[in-house]
């Protein structure tokens, strides 16, 4: 899957210490809020009497918000620097989460979902840009895998806590609590991320077209694999609660399943980061895509709590294998000139899959069954695995440079 990196790894402790306060702790807080939101939001829609297709549409609108802001974020990062973009992203996530608590209508919840997606995109690309600028390629895999692992740790804590709060006090109170948690993450950005020098000369629309033209092959091959993995990830977030609801499970049971799956997911980030920095990025991403597709194909066979838990744990393990793989690949491929614009384009391509997953499921639910939606998503995942294995170049070379 590519040449092995024969250089010595930089000390891991120094990488993790440097990024603890500016990246990892705010990532944990924001992820606790977001992962709980992604579980509670579709369930709150179902409680209003709307169907699974409406819940899928709402999650899909969040992906639309991400798509709308991916390219502008790249330009804003170049013009303003990382700090203001990161801060605005977290505040947008907090405001939109609070809107879910105050909203009694689906259309207003749809607006909040779009704002949530826009805020997450600013927060996500801003962190990737910050790590890319502050970490060498030989430590980048571990740095980004640790960030992604911290997100998964939040995915373990968030759904369980959010489900308990919603069960005891209702969805509105749960959404307010989640808004407060993500607001706390913004304080770390204020105090621990220094202002960076903007690059206004490169921050215009022509920089985006230049990036696309100069990186056509990279974006067309790696982008396909990115779309497939993001599609499976967003579909998993929606499919597991919907299958749990179909099986008649309570909110707390569904939240526990998702939290346990996230625990397995989060446990993978240290070994996966080492594998990516020592052997190559594809050693993590290809097995991830294959096992992820298998887990989604097994979802229609679940029939009770135990079987849904088993398949969810497999999905968590598969996703864990891909911890930070797409972010690392994108950081490796980003050229020095127009780097931030490239990261925006790279994220935009992946978010096509992120937005497309729920929308695809919603469309299939109108035409077929929930099981068919899961199977179709698994098929796309297999295609993405083939593209990643045969068409995407390994970015970690023998000398440790991209």
Explain this structure to me?
This protein has helices at residues 12-47, 52-80, 82-102, 106-134, 137-169, 171-192, 205-214, 216-246, 251-266, 269-278, 282-298, 305-321, 325-333, 339-367, 370-391. Helices cover 82% and strands 0% of the residues. The two termini are 15 Å apart. The protein has 15 helices and no strands. The chain has a single domain (13-191, 207-391), classed as Growth Hormone, Chain: A (Up-down Bundle), CATH 1.20.1250. The radius of gyration is 20 Å and the shape is globular. The model is unreliable at 2-8 and 398-402 (pLDDT under 50). It has 402 residues and is mainly α. The longest helix has 36 residues, at 12-47.
Oligomer: single chain
**What is the H/E order?**
HHHHHHHHHHHHHHH
Low-confidence stretches: 2-8, 398-402
Please outline the major beta sheet.
none
Full CATH superfamily name: MFS general substrate transporter like domains
| CATH class division | Mainly Alpha
The number of domains: 1
Mean pLDDT: 87
Number of strands: 0
Which class best fits the helix and strand makeup?
Answer: mainly alpha
- Number of DSSP helices? 15
Q: Helicity level, as a percent range?
A: over 70%
Shape: globular
Radius of gyration: 20 Å
List the helices and strands and how they pair.
Layout: H1 12-47, H2 52-80, H3 82-102, H4 106-134, H5 137-169, H6 171-192, H7 205-214, H8 216-246, H9 251-266, H10 269-278, H11 282-298, H12 305-321, H13 325-333, H14 339-367, H15 370-391
Helix pairs in contact: 1-2, 1-3, 1-5, 1-6, 1-8, 2-3, 2-4, 2-14, 3-4, 3-6, 4-14, 5-6, 5-9, 5-10, 5-13, 8-9, 8-11, 8-12, 8-14, 8-15, 9-12, 11-12, 11-15, 14-15
